[in-house]
Amino acid sequence: MPMTGAVPAGPPPTTPFQHVLGPDGDGEGPAIQVPAPRRRKARYSPADVRAGFAFVSPWLIGFVLLTAFPMLASLYLAFTDYNLFRDPQWVGMENFVKLFQDPRFLQSAQVTAIYVFIGTPIKLAASLGAALLLNMKHRGQGSYRSIFYVPSLIGASVSIAIVWKAMFIDDGIVDKIQTGLGFPAGGWVGDPGMTMPMMILLAVWTFGAPTVIFLAGLKQIPAELYEAADCDGAGRLRKFWNITVPMLSPVVFFNLLMETINAFQVFSSAFIISGGTGGPAGSTLFYTLYLYIRGFQDFRMGYASAMAWVLVVVVGLLTAVLFRTSRSWVHYTGDEK
Amino acid sequence: MSTVAEAVASTRPDVGGAGRRRAQAQTRRSVKSVIFHLAAVAASIVVLYPAAWMVMSSLKPSNDIVGNTSLLPETWTLENYVKAFGGIGGVEFSTFFGNSVLLAVLSVVGTVVSTTVVSYAFARIPFPGRNAMFAIMIGTLLLPFHVVIIPQYILFNQLGMVNTYLPLLVGKFLATEAFFIFLMVQFIRGIPRELDEAARIDGCGHGRTFVSIMLPLMRPAIITTSIFTFIGSWNDFMGPLLYLKRPDLYPLPIALRQYVDQTTTSDYGAQMAMAVLSLLPVLIFFVIFQRYIIAGVATQGLKG
């Protein structure tokens, strides 16, 4: 039964059903015999249990085969030397030691960190601004919202990466406009100092998706709060700071978390713009691009697995930090929703 | 514009202070409205410019694209599209397009079938371990998927599935798209329990209840999921890059990349034409289904 493997593979669950899942994860017979210790009665009808596992089985099988097992496999491979043709050779910590001495790896980490920690705040600021604009009472808001969303649909596509490259290339349209305005030019694509601003611009251009999410959050803030503040004579800035900001903070947190995680994984635009090399001078060597080059061009799959796990740990730590700090700035209202 | 509004306001008969105040307020409102629309239109132009540039460039002669600052072509031509339809290396454009359609349609079928079934279990059937599994499922949303691509590649390679579409589709049929399960569970939780409980009391099993009660009610969530899956599959680059090495199997993004690699900068026209053709289905989808798409995005952040 593949289901049994699912349980220990995941993070330790802290749910009321944890005791049921113990060593016997299939949950068929014994689950019913397990007496409910405290709060919750853990009595299931056998028909429900059978149907439940039958209905959930696609996910369960998929999780075990395509997520849990591969994660464990890559954890193992991270400690080996493996090139797809010979059996993996155990090398201990060697991959990790080499990683932190590998200038290309360090550069890819730096490139990605700049992209994540500078690009994401700019993108979120732009999308929050746009959402506030779209939340005003004016005609045509639906159309503007749709227009702003278009880049999010196509921004990650190969087509747009090609367009971006053509627009920012030497003698391209951006270059021409710059020259016309009297700025030194030469194109952004070939200039190691300018590729990062170009990539961040591409990310910021797709501000529409977080905007739509922010807007939905803004619309959920009860109008009574603003009316009450009006009665008390609160100014606009005051209302924004004391009502909008705290009421919107769960949505800000969600967007911050998802955009940060996504920014770590940018791949296709960097691949297309640099022709798969991460150039010029490694300035677009994003983490995932270097992982791809190591794993699927050099076939250093152990090394690439080590890289993947470093990414998981970094993203996991960052997520944990975000969740931890969120307690002090994310405001949840008492009721569900 | 604001002066017009002021003029209108000032010609009003002055009926005491109240009338004037109202007129002033109206003026302020219309001035604000003008400023708002100017800002919004300016932002829209900036936002749409790259897409407009792409479309217009595809209609210019190839040597007139890169440096030309005028958006509209001086000479209009369809030559680029003729060249794009010719395809790459003996494989016609229609083959790439067909491959993309096939992959997208099968992805939609797989994702819809698997996520509806699984979300019903998570939302409505009490069984041991359900909450833990749900928590793990949500956890996979935060997982960088690069950690699984290498072992997945090794696995599919050993199963002889490289150069087939299976590695790109198996996951869809096995509900690995956690976000859509989450979306559907949220949706089902909003459906009154009485509806399916009535069916259960009448003696329907879970299978029957799911098919005849739940599925029809889940239509909006299914449509949203289908649209996003289609677009996701259509734009997917890394998956096909890893698993498809034969040009006749390429979907559009890989074909496009191949085309860019093979041609020089002088052939920007055909690249742009192919880029436009590749994005066209996505944009048509958006025009038709924008309500569902925007609603689908909007639900993400709430209760996240």
Give a verbal description of the structure.
- The complex is a heterodimer of chains A (337) and B (304).
- Chain A is an all-alpha fold.
- Chain A has two domains: 2-77, no CATH class; 98-329, MetI-like (MetI-like fold, Orthogonal Bundle), CATH 1.10.3720.10.
- Helix content of chain A is 66%, strand content 1%.
- Chain A is built from 16 helices and two strands.
- Chain A has helices spanning 6-9, 18-21, 30-33, 46-77, 94-99, 103-134, 141-154, 158-168, 173-180, 195-205, 208-219, 223-231, 236-264, 268-273, 287-297, 301-329; strands at residues 80-81, 89-90.
- Chain A has a two-stranded antiparallel ribbon.
- In chain A, helix 4 crosses helix 16 (301-329), helix 6 packs antiparallel against helix 13 (236-264) and helix 7 (141-154) packs across helix 11.
- The longest helix of chain A has 32 residues, at 46-77.
- Chain A starts with 5 loop residues before the first helix and ends in an 8-residue tail after the last helix.
- Chain B has two domains: 2-58; 88-301, MetI-like (MetI-like fold, Orthogonal Bundle).
- Chain B contains 14 helices and no strands.
- In chain B, helix 1 packs antiparallel against helix 2 (16-58), helix 4 (93-124) runs parallel beside helix 7 (166-173) and helix 11 runs antiparallel to helix 14.
- The radius of gyration of chain B is 27 Å and the shape is flat.
- Residues 1-15 of chain B have low confidence and may be disordered.
- The chains are: A mainly alpha (337), B mainly alpha (304).
- Chains A and B meet through helix 2, helix 4, helix 7, helix 8 and helix 9 of A and helix 2, helix 4, helix 5, helix 6 and helix 7 of B.
